[in-house]
Write a structure and sequence with these properties.
Distance between the termini of chain B: 27 Å
Order of helices and strands of chain B: HHHHHHEEEEEEEEHEEHHHH
Number of domains of chain B: 3
Strand content of chain A: 5-15%
Largest interface: A-B, 47 and 42 residues
Number of domains of chain A: 3
Radius of gyration of chain A: 24 Å
Distance between the termini of chain A: 57 Å
Structural class of chain B: alpha+beta
Helix content of chain B: 40-55%
Helix content of chain A: 40-55%
Order of helices and strands of chain A: HHHHHEEEEEEEEHHHHHH
Oligomer: heterodimer
Strand content of chain B: 15-25%
CATH class of the largest domain in chain B: Mainly Alpha
Radius of gyration of chain B: 21 Å
CATH superfamily of the largest domain in chain A: Butyryl-CoA Dehydrogenase, subunit A, domain 2
Number of strands of chain A: 8
CATH architecture of the largest domain in chain B: Up-down Bundle
Largest sheet of chain A: 4 strands, mixed
CATH topology of the largest domain in chain B: Butyryl-CoA Dehydrogenase, subunit A, domain 3
CATH class of the largest domain in chain A: Mainly Beta
CATH topology of the largest domain in chain A: Butyryl-CoA Dehydrogenase, subunit A, domain 2
Strand order of the largest sheet of chain A: 1-4-5-8
Shape of chain A: globular
């Protein structure tokens, strides 16, 4: 019975796609899509709430259950060259916590604009003095009449220079223990007192910004959850963030499905990336020392993949996670850094180009990537913090 | 196949853990060592293990076994690793019985395998001739003569060779020392004329022998498998040996890791428990991660072999490399964190360190298997 309903739904979506997906954005199109085509496609998709398919329709969402959402994803992938997306700060981070903690008015006000992409959100969490120790944040918000007046600064704010609004952690009680004086507020960035400076990294321009607040105003109505109860919301949002970063949400609608059938030969990813730089052709790499470094990385990568798989299977079997998520974060970032180092060695002087002629764009990008990878073991909790967490939570070592 | 243990595997694990902790704790190995026991383990206990069906785990039911696989044997070996139980699973079950199952005639299987399952027949593989592992290097010669062969050569590191009832000897019937072709397997009784088996005293107190073959005469019935095609039999056996050792190494590393964390929680210096020091915490957390990786790849290797997966050899090498490195890290760090007491013979950490080294160097260390992994990955 349910299958029949689901098949009807598939038909409905297929017809809808037929009517609404611009011809230039379909598989095998022979015309180049224009900017207008892309905009029309986004508007049509978001208009049905499909950019947030499982959110309730009264807040602009698609109102679909997860089976229908999967059908939507499959049908879109079948017809269109991509599924329109809007910023994940809204769809995967703020949206879910508003649905859980926001009041009716806040949901009505903010959720539809996330779905449509009308408002771009950014995340005001880290501060210059509050990195690994996030709860020690100092940005102050003081209630004056109908507004919270905010002073302070946020750093490592991704995309603040392209954002319209910020969801922000502010200190609303300076006397309480540090976790108990934090509130979660929303405010418009397009107002006097907000200064946004993009941050130049060692790898060059970046998505990161520092944001300064001087008597910036957040409407009282935009306090989410209870006053001084923001830490609970902050943590829940971080859970959504981690779930999204580990691929837990369905953002892959436009991605091609992996072809089934003959499995590809088990060739090493890094080995093949390095091969052109190491001379020689197919088969065994000539450079014995480099080959061993690559082999160690490939081996670790295989073992890490199996560890992730095992952990997932243990969770499914109700055995709880065998390994802490801290370990995954730690290992993934350290592996990524090591990979970049090995590729730098393999490329030799071709790895040293910074800009301009003499290097291919991909060579220049790899070099920037090597520099950017240094941040992997810092952002989202440093490797040292992860080791502390494992020592305390998993091994139970004393403080 | 899932990397989570099945109910049956959980049961084997539990039974094995209780059994070896009670009957073959580390003190048993120490006692055997101190007594210079000529066998190297307790035959009575091996018999008891066979009554639980352990030697027959991977052997087919028609030959007296239970027809399970490496996944089940691995669970058991991990527990043996935790107490350093020195029982001949690798020599007799994985290598000896494995060779007979793969290459033997029905008559050879019927003659030898039921005895293995009952704990009565012990086997050993006489393969290696070099120091650093080089399984392709075989100079021992078997020359056809009348209705049989005459074998001469010298084998070393023959695990449990000192007590084996039958040796599976790898000899060259044609070709040169390092050729893949031309190897043949023979069943040789240790009492055969010209066969000199001498126990060597090893660092891990396990039994191994040096076997000198001087014109040992065997009949054609002693040939195991096809003449000249021995490599086809040995290579899959070595994959199994690698995975089996990986499982034992995971057991050793897990035990040493847990003992070390416990020590960090109790040992006091400078008026505090040493586990409060971040210099030690981070190293402990690092070991935890490495162990998780070793466990996952070892589980997958055992399953890959049972499933006959195309990448089984590659994963087996990955497991042996990773488990060797992890056990080396954990036993060395474990000893260091135990401080001076760790250096004493009285403390057990040293026994774990010694066994881990022997298991690491047996049938290819991490560098050997990393190289093989790279080759099998295509670079």
């Amino acid at each position: 019975m349910q299958d029949v309903a689901l098949e009807d739904f598939r038909q409905e979506i297929a017809s809808w796609l037929e009517a609404n997906c611009p011809a230039s954005l379909r598989h095998g199109a022979d015309v180049e899509p224009t900017e207008e085509d892309r905009q029309a496609w986004l508007e049509a998709y978001a208009g049905r709430g499909f950019t947030t398919p499982t959110w309730p329709s009264e807040y602009g969402g698609g109102g679909l259950d997860k089976h229908q959402a999967r059908v939507l994803q499959e049908e879109t992938a079948r017809v269109a060259s991509y599924a329109p997306v809007v910023s994940f700060f809204g769809t995967s981070m703020l949206g879910p916590v508003l649905l859980e903690f926001g009041n009716e008015e806040q949901k009505q006000e903010h959720l539809p604009k996330i779905t449509s992409g009308e408002i771009n959100w950014c995340q005001g969490y880290s501060e210059p003095g509050a990195g690994s120790d996030l709860a020690s944040l100092q940005t102050r918000a003081v209630l004056e009449g109908n507004h919270y007046v905010i002073n302070g600064s946020k750093i490592w704010t991704t995309g603040a220079n392209r954002a319209d609004w910020m969801f922000c952690l502010v200190r609303t009680d300076t006397d309480a223990p540090k976790h108990d004086g934090i509130s979660f507020v929303l405010f418009d960035l397009h107002q006097p007192g907000v200064t946004i400076s993009p941050i130049q990294l060692i790898s060059g321009a970046s998505e990161f910004c520092q944001v300064f607040f001087e008597d910036v105003k957040a409407e009282k109505a935009n306090l989410v959850g209870p006053l001084n109860g923001g830490w609970t919301i902050a943590k829940r949002l971080l859970q959504h963030e981690r779930a999204m970063l580990s691929g837990g949400t369905g953002l892959g609608a436009g991605r091609r499905k992996k072809a089934k059938g003959a499995a590809p030969a088990p060739k090493g990813m890094l080995a093949e990336a390095a091969r052109p730089y190491l001379g020689g052709g197919e088969g065994r790499l000539d450079d014995a020392a480099m080959r061993d470094r690559i082999a160690q990385w490939e081996l670790d990568s295989l073992c890490f993949g199996l560890t992730l798989r095992r952990s997932g299977e243990q969770a499914k079997a109700g055995q709880g996670p065998g390994a802490a998520s801290s370990m995954f974060k730690l290992y993934a970032s350290e592996m990524n850094k090591r990979r970049a180092e090995i590729l730098m060695s393999a490329r030799g002087s071709a790895a040293l180009g910074w800009s301009g002629e003499g290097f291919t764009p991909s060579e220049l990008m790899e070099t920037r990537g090597w520099l950017r990878s240094k941040g992997n073991s810092i952002e989202g909790g440093t490797s040292e913090v992860q080791l502390n967490v494992i020592a305390k939570r998993v091994l139970g070592l004393p403080d | 196949m899932s990397l989570v243990l099945t109910e049956e595997q959980e049961l084997i694990k539990q039974t094995a853990a209780e059994f070896v902790q009670e009957k073959s704790p580390v003190t048993e190995l120490r006692a055997l060592r101190d007594a210079e026991d000529p066998v190297g383990f307790s035959r009575g206990l091996w018999k008891e293990m066979s009554e639980l069906g352990w030697p027959g785990i991977p052997i087919a039911e028609e030959h007296g076994g239970s027809g399970l696989g490496m996944a089940e044997l691995g669970v058991l070996l991990e527990e043996c690793g935790r107490t350093l139980a020195p029982y001949p699973f690798l020599s007799t079950v994985v290598l000896g019985a494995g060779a007979i199952e793969r290459a033997g005639t029905e008559a050879q299987k019927q003659t030898l395998l039921p005895g293995v399952c009952k704990g009565e027949t012990l086997l050993a593989l006489a393969l290696e001739e070099t120091g650093r592992f080089a399984p392709g290097h075989v100079e021992t010669r078997a020359t056809a003569e009348g209705s049989g062969y005459r074998i001469s050569g010298e084998k070393r590191f023959v695990l449990d060779g000192q007590v084996a009832d039958q040796l599976v000897v790898v000899a060259r019937t044609s070709g040169e020392a390092k050729d893949r072709d031309g190897l043949t397997l023979f069943l040789v009784g240790p009492g055969a004329k010209g066969c000199d088996v001498r126990r060597t005293s090893m660092v891990d107190s396990r039994g191994a022998a040096r076997v000198v073959l001087s014109d040992v005469q065997v009949s054609n019935d002693a040939v195991l498998g096809e003449v000249g095609r021995g490599a086809d039999v040995i290579e899959p056996l070595l994959d199994r040996a690698a995975a089996a050792l990986a499982a034992e190494l995971v057991g050793i590393a897990s035990e040493v890791f847990e003992r070390t964390v416990q020590y960090l929680k109790t040992r006091e210096q400078f008026g505090v428990r040493i586990g409060t020091f971040q210099a030690l915490k981070h190293r402990a957390a690092h070991m935890f991660c490495e162990l998780e990786l070793a466990q996952a790849v070892t589980l997958d290797a055992l399953r890959a072999l049972d499933e006959g997966r195309a990448d089984a050899s590659r994963i087996a090498s990955a497991a042996k490399a990773r488990a060797s490195d992890t056990a080396s890290l954990v036993t060395c760090e474990g000893l260091q964190m135990h401080g001076g007491i760790g250096m004493t013979d009285e403390e057990e950490i040293g026994l774990f360190l010694k066994r881990a080294k022997a298991a690491e160097l047996a049938f290819g260390d991490s560098a050997y298997h990393r190289d093989r992994f790279a080759t099998l990955t295509g670079f």
